[in-house]
Write a structure and sequence with these properties.
4-stranded antiparallel beta sheet, globular, signal, Immunoglobulin-like, alpha+beta
């Protein structure tokens, strides 16, 4: 990103050439202004990427904390499924249905980490949802909701799940 900003600044310097009489030409002035706007856009994009990365790191850390609170849970990833696709809400955050199927002979609760991914499989967000009191031999649904606004075709999957 720093390389892009440097390149835009170098272009601006080259474009601020003077006319034959030593005054900056109108074309060069307009080009320099355009280069300045481009540099500003690059800077804003870099800031957005940094913020997105920070938000994902925060969500991942929070998921880890929630699993740490869920003591003595059995691995239950195979007992939990997501709808696979996420539906956008009016606020840009997306939701997906999570279904926990309890194969045991007593009611159990589940904690489920749901990952939100783009079409290339890149992790966009992660969240944790609990599914309480799933009846013995039965299923129960919950809704996983992204922590922030996501765009594009978002897919979901179960990263991990535990029951107790």
């Amino acid at each position: 990103m720093a390389l892009a900003v440097s390149a835009v600044a170098a272009l601006a310097a080259q474009l601020t050439a003077c006319s034959d009489d030593g005054t900056p030409s109108d074309t060069a002035s307009k080009a320099a202004s355009a280069a300045s706007r481009a540099a500003s856009a690059v800077s804003e994009a870099a800031s957005a990427v940094t913020e997105a990365g920070d938000a994902l790191a925060s969500a991942t850390a929070e998921a880890g904390r929630k699993f740490d609170e869920f003591k003595n849970g059995a691995d239950a990833k195979s007992e939990v499924k997501t709808s696979g696709t996420a539906s956008p809400g009016s606020d840009g955050r997306v939701t997906a249905e999570v279904t926990a199927t309890n194969p045991t002979s007593s009611a159990k609760s589940y904690v489920v980490q749901v990952d939100f991914r783009d079409q290339s499989g890149n992790l966009l967000d992660t969240t944790v949802v609990t599914v309480d009191d799933v009846p013995a031999g039965g299923s129960k649904n919950a809704t996983a909701r992204s922590n922030r606004s996501l765009t594009g075709d978002v897919k979901t999957d179960v990263a991990r799940a535990a029951r107790h």
